[in-house]
Amino acid sequence: MKRFVELTRTSLTKQAVEQILDMIRPEGGIYKPGERLPSEREMAMSMGISRPALREALAVLVVSGALERKPGSGTYIPAQAPPDNNTIIVNLEMLNR
Predict the structure, then answer these.
(1) What share of the chain is helix, strand, coil (3-state, %, to 5)?
(2) CB crowding 42-80: b at 16 or more within 10 Å, else e
(3) How far apart, in whole angstroms, are the C-alpha atoms of residue 45 and residue 41?
(4) What is the pLDDT of residues 13-60, one digit of tens each?
(5) Of 8 and 4, which is predicted with more confidence?
(6) Mean pLDDT confidence for 68-84
(7) Residue boundaries of the structural domains of the chain
(8) Quick one: pLDDT at residue 8?
(9) Which is nearest to 29 in space by CA: 17, 18, 21?
(10) What sign does the dihedral 38-41-46-52 (CA atoms) show?
(11) pLDDT at 41
């Protein structure tokens, strides 16, 4: 007889990180190096999440080097290649402990 497998929840922050990474990836992403991302308000509304959840996702990406913040200007994709996704996901898992 088959047994049920324990289900895990995926946090909104993790989902936001994954979605942003997909949009900024070097091959086929919507946003290119040096480009500015939409405002936090726009991104949160389009993802259907709160701004605090989005801010947490952006913080993970900034700390990981996948994004950079310019105070008073916005959030940008760095000109250099971003770190691999595994490094970013590890940083996110550490944050959620």
Answers:
(1) 45, 5, 45
(2) ebbeebebeeebbebbbbbbeebebbeeeeeeebbbeee
(3) 6
(4) 888 998 999 898 888 889 988 999 999 999 999 999 999 999 999 999
(5) 4
(6) 84
(7) 12-95
(8) 64
(9) 21
(10) positive
(11) 95
- Residue 75, strand partner residues: 69
> CA nearest 91: which of 55, 50, 69, 62?
62
Both structure tokens of 51: 């701004």
- In DSSP notation, 35-72 reads PBPPPHHHHHHHHT--HHHHHHHHHHHHHHTS-EEETT
CATH class of 12-95: mainly alpha
Query: Would the pLDDT of 92 be above 80?
Result: no
